[in-house]
Amino acid sequence: MASVKEGFICPMCMQDLGDVLQLEVHFHEKHNNTKSSSSSETKSVLNIIDGLKKKVDEIRVSKKPLLSKAHIPWKTNDTDNGQEELNAHPVTGIHYDAWPESYHPVKQDFYEEFSRLRSKKTDRFATDTNKLIIRLEKLMTNLPNDPVKRRNHEKNIVPWMDEETVKRCPDCSKSFNVTKRKHHCRLCGSVLCAECSCAISFDMAKRLINPATISEFNIPSPDHEFGIKTMKKYGSKESLTSLFSPESSKSSSSSFRSCKYCADIIKKRDSHVRDETGEPPIIVQYYEHLKDVMAEADEMSKFYTKMVQSLQSGETDYRLEDAKYIRVKIMKVADNIDAISKRILANGLTEGEEGGTANNLQERVRSLALMFIKDNLVGLDDVPSESEFEILKFKRLEETSKRVEDEKISALIAQKKYEQRQQQRLSSFNMPVKSKPSIEKMRLEDGFVLSPNASYLNLLSSNDDPILQQIHIIEGYISEAKNANRINEVQTLEANLRDLKVEYKRSTAERKELEDNYNSYKHIFTASTPPMPPGSQNNDESINKNPFHEN
């Protein structure tokens, strides 16, 4: 069976032209002068082509165009008949220049419809909001503490719906039974289950009643509940202990039960009040508080690590009691961080609801808090016990004593070496005149000869200190080496000069101290010596010369 071709195919040469215009031009140019042009078959083909052309023109200019007829661009061909055609691509039919600057689209105004719908919804929202705020104010006025009296007070303010008429929860469509109890919204009186109910805290109610006192209801600690939160499910998953715990009774007695519709209205109103007063959202306040607590915990952990390292090394700079106290405090701070991060994660979510970008951000904050607790607070070293600390102190005392003894021995060895070097140096300067030529010149490693100037030699005398004489000689060598641009020799000589000056200062100070001590003791013993008998002053001259002589 022959294959079937589709498209704008020439009946003569079976060529696909892609468009009616292309097919018509091709047929008139290629097959117009053929012998078969006058045949009936050719006329029928031409009639078919003309019919297709008319249909294409009808499609292009439909009854419901995007543009009015006045905006459709036309052009006049240069043909003799002056026929007007669309300025479109011959194959694709797309108008590439169909949007002139003077184009004005057809438009329809929906603002009136939008205003009508918006006003209707806004009025309804404003009416419901004002009604709920008035009910909150009535509920907060003279609210009794007794549960039974409080229940009657709430029923008198807002009439409750009859429980018998409601068989399923209107939100989750689950049937009520023994484990799924019925509850009433305190703001509208509708019946719902515990999973679909929310809690409106007293602080939020007071803030909405009197927005001027919004600063009094800031949340400084994680023990404070969020303004709107999901009520706990009192079913088989919880024990009797949790139901009658102080925390559970505290949370239930400090908030009103509400349905999701009323809670959403209250939440939007509270957000609007916070925006007007310039107060950041609750989640932002919790995050700022979380950062402060984490910074405090980081400082405490670093200080605790320093204390434990000191105690484990046997030092007595810190006490064991202080380290244990800080360890307990760090654990409390870790619990505080965990509680704040949990509240950040639970903000704005109800049970079984999947959050979007905001919830992903809250989950990352929670993960960050857990990683911080794991890395910085949980894996800390333990404080040594008292018996272990005594052993560590004894070991450190032994190590310290051994180190002191080693340092003493090293100091004695160094002192002996230094004294030997000084004796050799002094003996070289106390040599007779024959050693004078040895200091006339000094030959260094690379053949450079240093000889002191005459001015430095004239300054030396036999009564000068040998170290001082050597200092003057080295200064002369340094001056000569500088003039010869001998940098290496200058550095070596300057190092020797510094050592000599230090030694000269030390010896001078020791000598002065000895002279002062001698003078002080000489005065004391001379004043306390009894007078000598006559005729005995010349018996022993050494006695008068030595004031320390004992009779």
UniProtKB/TrEMBL annotation:
<dbReference type="InterPro" id="IPR011011">
    <property type="entry name" value="Znf_FYVE_PHD"/>
</dbReference>
<dbReference type="InterPro" id="IPR000306">
    <property type="entry name" value="Znf_FYVE"/>
</dbReference>
<dbReference type="InterPro" id="IPR052727">
    <property type="entry name" value="Rab4/Rab5_effector"/>
</dbReference>
<keyword id="KW-0479">Metal-binding</keyword>
<feature type="coiled-coil region">
    <location>
        <begin position="483"/>
        <end position="524"/>
    </location>
</feature>
<dbReference type="InterPro" id="IPR013087">
    <property type="entry name" value="Znf_C2H2_type"/>
</dbReference>
<feature type="region of interest" description="Disordered">
    <location>
        <begin position="525"/>
        <end position="551"/>
    </location>
</feature>
<keyword id="KW-0175">Coiled coil</keyword>
<dbReference type="GO" id="GO:0008270">
    <property type="term" value="F:zinc ion binding"/>
</dbReference>
<keyword id="KW-0863">Zinc-finger</keyword>
<keyword id="KW-0862">Zinc</keyword>
<dbReference type="Pfam" id="PF11464">
    <property type="entry name" value="Rbsn"/>
</dbReference>
<dbReference type="InterPro" id="IPR013083">
    <property type="entry name" value="Znf_RING/FYVE/PHD"/>
</dbReference>
<dbReference type="InterPro" id="IPR021565">
    <property type="entry name" value="Rbsn_Rab-bd"/>
</dbReference>
<dbReference type="InterPro" id="IPR036531">
    <property type="entry name" value="Rbsn_Rab-bd_sf"/>
</dbReference>
<feature type="compositionally biased region" description="Polar residues">
    <location>
        <begin position="535"/>
        <end position="545"/>
    </location>
</feature>
<feature type="domain" description="FYVE-type">
    <location>
        <begin position="163"/>
        <end position="267"/>
    </location>
</feature>
<dbReference type="InterPro" id="IPR017455">
    <property type="entry name" value="Znf_FYVE-rel"/>
</dbReference>
<protein>
    <recommendedName>
        <fullName>FYVE-type domain-containing protein</fullName>
    </recommendedName>
</protein>
<dbReference type="Pfam" id="PF01363">
    <property type="entry name" value="FYVE"/>
</dbReference>
